[in-house]
Write a structure and sequence with these properties.
This protein is an alpha/beta fold. It folds into five domains: 2-195, Rossmann fold, CATH 3.40.50.300; 203-336, 3-Layer(aba) Sandwich (Rossmann fold), CATH 3.40.50; 340-409 and 490-518, Arc Repressor Mutant, subunit A; 412-486, Arc Repressor Mutant, subunit A, CATH 1.10.10; 555-629, Orthogonal Bundle (Arc Repressor Mutant, subunit A), CATH 1.10.10.10. Helices cover 45% and strands 17% of the residues. Helix 2 packs across helix 3, helix 18 (419-428) packs across helix 19 (430-442) and helix 20 (455-462) packs across helix 21. 37% of the residues are buried.
Amino acid sequence: MLESLLKKHWGFESFRPLQREIILSVMQGNDTLALLPTGGGKSICYQLPALAKEGVCFVFSPLIALMKDQVDNLTKRNIPAIALHSGLTSKELEAELQNTLNGRYKLVYLSPERAATKQFRSYLKNIPVSFFVVDEAHCISQWGHQFRPEYLQLGELKEIVPEANFIAVSATATDPVQTDILKFLNFKNDEHIYRKSFKRDNLSYLVFRESNKVQRIVKILSKMHGTGLVYANTRRKCEEVANLLQSNGISASFYHGGLESSVRSQVQEDWLNNKTRIVVCTNAFGMGIDKPDVRLVIHFETPKSPEAYYQEAGRAGRDNLAAYCILLTNDSEEKSSWTTYPSLPQLEHILNCLYNYHQVAFTSGKGITYPLNIQEFIERFRLKYHEVNNALGVLHALGFVKLNEALFNLPKVKFLVGQEELYKYQVANEVQDMFIKLLLRSYGGMFEHFVGLRYDELAKRQKCSQEDLKRQLSKLAEDNIIDYIPGQSGNSITYLRARPTQIEFDKKVYVTLRDREEYRQEYLELYSTNNSECRENMLLKYFGEDRKEDCGKCDICRLLKKTSFKKNELNNVIALIKEQTVNNSLTFEAILSLFSTLEEKKIASTIKWLLNNEHLIKTNRTYTWNKNQE
């Protein structure tokens, strides 16, 4: 039965390692923890048993974009699914909850915040539940890299539906995070934990120290084939790098949360169909996207955590063919600005600025969502973008505010009258008749549910302006012919508690979060500056895996293989070269003479690696240590 469902809906003949065992555990009603690497097929582990079991499967996910991607993919496979996200109106939400109660959907995606509402819980009591899914389950732990306090309440759902089991899935859970997942989701004592090694045999992890990063990318792409991603930390940097790559003859586009939905969709579509070779993006890109033939993932800047790096780099090579994960490093200014953890006074100042920006009165504001123009906010209070960005994440973790995903919801229309009454209206209203015919020609299903409209396409078909179109839609709404919801866009922020008369942070939680963040940054720094340990083994060690053999493919393993040095021997060679060239310029022959017992070829390979990573600078025929790289 399981294989037939797999073949029917996903087109696969057999399961990947551990998938069948995880699915059977879920089917048997066990609380199950599935820890699989990025690209390891986590979604099928709950989507397939959701089809096989009676009832509705509820999936709690942190990101609207991820929910939408999953629902779109399921819909294409003829699996009934819906995402109950904040972009829905209260009327739409109520209708879809009623549809869920009536058995219309097999999988329902929603945020942990939605799970805590009285409205959802009142429905849940009457809905037959197959099981609960906690996606990105590391968010439940203060030790996790994306801690979200709303995840802590998910365990309470067992009190409403005691017979329902949980499956928690993650690709980035360290040992302390795993312990928290089991604890806060109230897993039974007979825990069923399935963990696949996080190693990816087809990936090569490389680190290049480089001052001209764009030229390094151009050089890499000239030697490699296939599509790739370049991750950057800011919207501005994404646009800047994409434009520079284009000027070097590379097919590239940029993607970030500030683009309109139609633009983002087009960028994504062109890349998926290989019309664009490279997308330069923030971490807003990639969640839920499974493009198997990505040959290259480059990080233009150091990411915020080893978890983020592993997850983003893991989008390469999902077809199990050779692929490369490259970190470009050594821009100390960017690192310091993006990784500085905000102090308590900074957090208090930015939180007060937010309260004043939205004119939130003392003891009010809890649960209210306000629009937030971040650029305007920064300029009004003379703040810096990276400071606000860092602070918002910590303020969320401390339970004060939540920055919501940028919404680009299309305007929506649904007919309120039947076809007979609509016809009478059309006969009596000649102008509106043309626009009604336009809607009916362009979209289906508007008598049953809301349909998203594209103003630009409709205006082009009608040969009118978008303003004319909006006026006619408003007129139809005034005449009670349609229910018309104008589109909305931009960031918003939700206050998770009322504005206090005196701000007090939980210092114990703050210190835990800060210390863990500093540990992540120290580990990334160690990873990028390391010149003797296997890169992949360093990543695996972070996630609790102690592998003895080296990968043989990363830049360190390749250097050791080329020079035939042992690890300690290589360290000693590099240390001596640094000592002799840090305040001095030496010729190749002079450097070679420092190592009378070692082969010339080994020293030459080491010098070449040091040059490629800008540790050494060559001027004419002499070599000097690059002090700027310290």
